[in-house]
Design brief:
Length: 295
């Protein structure tokens, strides 16, 4: 058990009785912020693959991971683009195909809060009755100035309604935030974390902003660095961990883009170094998740 955070790896091991790994699946979806329904080009940080640069098929993912973890269980994680953005029967077909795989123990679905119609919500509730499920909402920031800047395409009230609709159906919610977005202060990011922690979310993802090839950031902000150094990022994440209530499951504390598409920060591919640095700093402080929770 991780002594510093309520980690998703520990949660899944406790739930399924053994190591359980997410398989990043490309479901073949697009996004309303790309096809002209809400906008074109997507959010400014999004890569050409819809922030799913490691996604592929269940078989390919198991082949890559089974040697390292031969006895693991797996979750099908529909990751890139918007994975509820299709007719509900198409969604049902794709989700059920993944769940029928003999090595899949559950499903995780990443989407936008504005792509959860009642028919989709009812399908998710149906799956949730018989299978392990969480739905991941890409919020990134609670601040309107940031939402407009990153071309998110929906208001905070839409997120609030999505959380209520999912919570009313008993579905676990994971909220994705990006740290280091242009124009955001330290307090802006803290406010976003506090808001998510009060929203009813079951889990949270903290993602370091990477500038990657194929994104609009590459064109307009190719030399932008979200944090001055690896050490400054580590220290700030530790500050956030201290205020996240202990019951919230932490799914991510950094972001790892493939080196072939990473532009800045140059050090962000060092995922293990960043994570080890976070744990070392928490140990140095004598602190842990929720030790300074006041919300």
């Amino acid at each position: 058990m991780n002594p510093y955070i309520n980690s998703i790896s520990d949660y899944l091991k406790n739930t399924f009785g053994q190591k359980t790994i997410k398989l990043s699946i490309d479901g073949g979806f697009t996004c309303p912020n790309r096809d002209g329904t809400k906008g074109t080009g997507g959010c400014i940080f999004c890569s050409a693959d819809g922030s799913g640069d490691f996604a592929s098929t269940i078989e390919d993912q198991i082949h890559l991971l089974s040697e390292k973890w031969p006895d693991a269980k797996y979750l099908a994680y529909f990751q890139n683009h918007t994975n509820t953005y299709a007719p509900v029967e198409e969604l049902r077909t794709k989700y059920q195909a993944a769940l029928r795989h003999p090595l899949i123990s559950g499903i995780a679905i990443a989407t936008r809060p504005d792509c959860l119609g009642n028919d989709v919500l009812d399908l998710l509730a149906e799956i949730n009755r018989d299978h392990f499920l969480w739905v991941e909402l890409g919020l990134q920031s609670i601040h309107k100035k940031t939402a407009d800047f990153i071309n998110r395409g929906y208001d905070l009230e839409v997120f609030d309604q999505a959380v209520k609709s999912l919570t009313d159906r008993g579905i676990r919610i994971v909220v994705h935030l990006i740290l280091g977005l242009p124009g955001e202060s330290r307090q802006d990011m803290i406010d976003s974390v506090k808001y998510v922690c009060q929203s009813g979310a079951w889990g949270i993802k903290l993602h370091l902003l990477n500038v990657v090839k194929g994104s609009r950031m590459e064109i307009d902000y190719s030399d932008y660095n979200s944090f001055d150094s690896l050490e400054s990022y580590v220290n700030f994440v530790c500050d956030l961990i201290e205020i996240i209530p202990p019951e919230i499951v932490i799914h991510r504390m950094t972001g790892d883009a493939p080196r072939k598409i990473l532009i800045t920060p140059w050090w962000s591919y060092k995922k293990r170094t960043i994570l080890n640095g976070i744990y070392a700093e928490l140990r140095r402080r004598g602190s842990f998740q929720g030790c300074k929770t006041t919300i």
